[in-house]
Amino acid sequence: MMMTDRERFVATMHYQPRDRAPICDFGFWPETIVEWHKQGLPRNVTFERDYNAIHTDAFFGMDAYSGGPGVSVMLRPPFEVKVIEDRGDHEIIQQADGVRVLRKKYMSSIPHHVSHLLTDRESWRKYYKPRLDPDNPDRYPTDWEKVLAVWKDTKRPHPVVLNGGSLFGWIRDWMGLENVAMVIYDDPAWFEEMVTTIADCVVTVLGRAFEKGGVIDAISFWEDMCYNAGPLISPEHFRRFLLPQYQRITGLARRYGVDVAWVDCDGCIDALIPLWLEGGVNCMFPVEVGTWGGDPVRYRKQYGKQLLMMGGFDKRILARGRRDIEKEVDRLTPLVEEGGYIGFCDHRVPPDVPLANYMHYLRCVRERWGKGINLKPMGEAAM
Fold first, then answer.
1. Which residue, 212, 216, 225, 172, is CA-closest to 194?
2. Which of 51, 215, 73 is nearest to 139 (CA)?
3. What is the pTM of this model?
4. Which residues, including other chains, have CB under 8 Å from residue 268's CB and lie 6 or more apart?
5. Series of mean pLDDT values for 10-residue runs along the chain (383 residues)
6. What's the half-sphere exposure (Cβ side, CA atoms, 13 Å) at 120?
7. Helix or strand holding residue 113 (H, E)
8. Contacts of 172 (CB under 8 A, 6+ apart)
9. Helix (H), strand (E) counts: the chain
């Protein structure tokens, strides 16, 4: 029997029988799509959501692992996005989170932080704490009945995943890494206040959403709180400040039947995995391989089936030869077949990956992981 994307996702995350493994991706650098257009990708295929174009998910025949209507736990209202200074090829802009960054105009790159509004307790209480008010009506849909109709429809084609927020990553962005690192030591009570305020907002907003009814398939966190040598916050501080708030949020979700909670964190996550599991965050996403050797096969041996995972296919291998791609697909195949794991590139596909290599990777995973069963069609006769 052919499953929907939602049914396939739920079965995979619970080690249940399914028609096949999900075939998904994480996404692409904008430059990658530009380069692939030069290599034969149809010009109307884009990673952006554009009604006049074909999205990469549709063109490459991807299944969905997230989406659906939800509620907002982010800053409300957002700060005005505006250009502060034009520097030719670059510009300084104020982002929706209030941070001012220097970025390229025409080709993407990680923006360089120039300045932060969040510098002390006064700026926290003036600019940020009011934007974490859970009672702001902009957090909730104006068409609740339509949203609830989707949530209650267990035959819907896609999973519904609600945002669980960010307990450290947002604060790091709002005030900068050096500043947040100092605050943890110099004013731990203030750091705890910020973390707790975020969690209060998340718990209240998600609680109201859950009370409306319906079936939610997962919640997701974003942190990016690790780098190539380990975490940006010590495990001791994680346990003291973050763990109780993760437990509040995931405990609430589980009371409403939501038992999948993933965290999107780049870098070497090894030291934090046990703490996330203790906090009820049971899925690592996208298991970045990096120079530190993050490996979903190793993690499964270490943590067993309690640890769910997504990602974990080394993006650097996609730039190599076809045989290397096939070997890595084969290496991950037993884990894919076991369940509790959705394999895809460990981050956005970079522009040094030839389109031909990516298409070969897709053909391999569709054959080995998808078994050729109930697969979605690929555009342009798979190039």
1. 172
2. 73
3. 0.95
4. 226, 227, 228, 229, 230, 231, 290, 292, 294
5. 95 98 94 95 87 88 93 97 85 92 74 92 98 98 95 96 98 96 97 98 98 96 96 98 98 98 97 98 97 97 98 97 97 98 96 97 97 91 63
6. 1
7. strand 112-115
8. 180, 224, 225, 232
9. 14, 14
